[in-house]
Write a structure and sequence with these properties.
single chain; alpha+beta; four-stranded antiparallel β-sheet
Length: 76
Amino acid sequence: MNCQITVTDFVEQGTAVYIKVKVYDYQKNHQYQEELRFLGEMLYGELIHPKKSPLTEECRLEIIAYLRKYFGRYPS
């Protein structure tokens, strides 16, 4: 595990889920707090964006996998 992920809050509205997360990236020794969102099966937010994320690639991918499993949202 390359990071610690904590879902602090979430709200479901139709097919959308708005999620507040805290993420600690062990390699960068830094904690981040941000809102992400599922719109249908797609996950959005700068924290997990391939080019905008401040996280290490391993941590970014770990967050995506964790949240997909947590909310049962898998791409078709």
